[in-house]
Amino acid sequence: MSDFISENGGETKSIFVEESIPTIEAELKKVIGKGHVGRARDIDMTIGVLKEISKMKDYNIVNDSFSKINSGHLIDLDKELQDITSIGPKISSFYLRDLICLYELENEIPIDQLKVIQPIDVWVKKVAQTIGIIEDEDENPEIIRDAIFDACQKADVSVIKFNQGAWYLGAKSFDVLIDNLENLKP
Question: Quick check: pTM over 0.90?
Answer without folding.
Answer: no
